[in-house]
Design brief:
This protein starts with a strand and ends in a 10-residue tail after the last strand. It is built from eleven helices and 21 strands. About 25% of the residues lie in helices and about 35% in strands.
C-alpha cells in the first residue's frame, strides 16, 4: 500500500492522471510495467531511457489527488512507481520510502573573486578552440522584433526537433518578460548570426533562459556557436559585475549532455527554486533492468537539504571501470554519490574528487533511510 504524507491542501485539489505503462526494457528486453501518477516531461524523459521502443499507455484513472490512493496501492504490482507531486510531499509504502528526484536542477557559475579564481573550463578546451578557430564573437540585441523572430523561427523549431512530442516550449509572453530585464545574446561569425541565448539580469545574477541556433544554420553546433553562448554569457556577467551566472535548468540525470556541458563551464549544481514539483520513484524489488537504467541514467536525488547522486556500476565492472564511472558523475554541488551494489560487487572507494561515496545494498534501496 502506498500513500502520500505531508501533502498540501492546494496540491490535493489538483486533478491527476494515473497510468500504467507496458513495454520492454532496453537492458534485457523483458516485459515490464511502470505506474505513473501525474505526467510530466521529466517523467517521459526518464522512461525513454528505461523502456525500449513501443510503450503502451493504459489510463487507470483521472481524479483528484485525494482520491488517488487506490491506484497508488497498485504500485506493488509494477516494477517501478513514479509519482509527480508537490516538492515537500513524501511517498511511503509497505516496501519503503521513495527516492525524491527534483523536477529540474540548476547550474550556477560563481563569479566572486573571478580574477583570482576563474571558472574551471578544462573540460571545454575543444569548445574554446572552436570559438577561436571560427572567429565567433557575441553581440547583444535589445530589439523586440529580433526576439520575436528568434522565438518563432529558431526556438520553437529547435524544441520540437529535439524533443518531438515531448517538447514543452515556454510561452512567448513568459520569455518576453525575461527579455525586458536582459536581452538576446547572439553568437555571430562575420556578421552572420549563428545562435542566440535569451538572458536576464536580476540583482547580481545573470541567467540563461533558452538557447537555440538560428534557422538555416545547421552548422551552428559544429562551429561551437551554441556552446559559445554559455562562454559569452559568463564574460558578459563579469563585465556587468555579477556575482553569479545561472546557466539554466537541466534534467536530473548526471550524464545528460547539456548538464555535462554546463559542468565543463565551471558550473555547480544547485536545486532549482522554481521547480515546485518533484518526482518520487520507488521499486518493490531491485532487478538488473533497474540497475542498468541507473548506471546509464544516474539520477540526481534530494538528500535532506542537499543534492546527491544515485547510480550503479555496470555488470562485472572492474575497480578501474568503477572509478572512471564515478569520476564522470562527480560534480560540484553534490553531497555524496550513492552506489547501489551488493557486498561482492563493491570496491574500496570512499571518495571521488573529494565527494564521499556511500555503498548501499540492493535490498536497502527498496526501503532506504538517508
Amino acid at each position: 500500500m502506498l500513500h502520500l504524507a505531508h501533502m498540501s491542501r492546494l496540491f490535493m485539489g489538483r486533478r491527476v492522471t494515473t497510468e500504467r505503462l507496458h513495454g520492454h526494457t532496453r537492458f534485457s528486453a523483458k516485459p515490464v510495467s511502470v505506474l505513473t501518477v501525474g505526467r510530466a516531461s521529466t517523467v517521459d524523459y526518464l522512461l525513454q531511457r528505461f523502456f525500449n521502443d513501443g510503450i503502451n499507455y493504459e489510463t487507470l484513472e483521472n481524479s483528484l489527488w485525494s482520491k488517488v490512493s487506490e491506484n497508488l496501492s497498485n504500485g506493488n504490482s509494477a516494477n517501478i512507481t513514479i509519482v509527480r507531486c508537490a516538492r515537500k510531499s513524501q511517498l511511503k509504502s509497505d516496501f519503503g520510502q521513495a527516492w525524491q528526484i527534483p523536477d529540474a536542477v540548476a547550474s550556477v557559475v560563481d563569479l566572486r573573486n573571478v580574477a583570482d579564481h576563474p571558472p574551471d573550463q578544462r573540460g571545454n578546451k575543444d569548445n574554446l578552440r572552436r570559438i577561436r578557430k571560427h572567429d565567433l564573437y557575441a553581440t547583444i540585441s535589445y530589439d523586440p522584433r529580433v526576439f520575436n523572430d528568434f522565438y518563432q523561427d529558431a526556438y520553437l523549431p529547435h524544441i520540437y526537433a529535439r524533443f518531438g512530442n515531448f517538447g514543452r516550449p515556454h510561452s512567448r509572453a513568459s520569455l518576453a518578460r525575461h527579455f525586458k530585464s536582459g536581452g538576446l545574446l547572439c553568437v555571430e561569425q562575420k556578421g552572420d548570426r549563428k545562435a542566440a541565448m535569451l538572458y536576464s539580469i536580476s540583482g547580481d545574477t545573470a541567467k540563461s533562459h533558452i538557447v537555440a541556433p538560428f534557422p538555416g544554420h545547421r552548422d551552428a553546433e559544429n562551429l561551437g556557436a551554441v556552446s559559445a553562448t554559455y562562454k559569452f554569457l559568463i564574460d558578459h556577467g563579469i563585465k556587468q559585475e555579477c556575482t553569479s551566472v545561472h546557466l539554466g535548468n537541466s534534467r536530473p540525470n548526471l550524464l545528460d549532455g547539456i548538464l555535462v556541458h554546463k559542468k565543463h563551464w565551471g558550473a555547480r549544481l544547485v536545486d532549482a527554486p522554481e521547480a515546485s514539483d518533484q518526482l518520487q520513484i520507488s521499486w518493490p524489488k531491485f532487478n538488473p533492468d533497474i540497475a542498468d537504467w541507473l548506471n546509464k541514467t544516474p539520477l540526481i536525488i534530494r538528500d535532506a537539504s542537499d543534492l546527491s547522486a544515485l547510480t550503479t556500476l555496470s555488470a562485472n565492472a572492474t575497480a578501474e571501470e568503477a572509478r572512471r564511472h564515478l569520476v564522470r558523475l562527480s560534480s560540484a554541488g553534490l553531497k555524496r554519490i550513492i552506489v547501489i551494489a551488493d557486498k561482492n560487487d563493491r570496491f574500496d572507494i570512499d571518495t571521488i574528487n573529494d565527494i564521499p561515496v556511500r555503498w548501499m545494498g540492493s535490498k536497502k534501496s527498496q526501503s532506504h533511510r538517508l
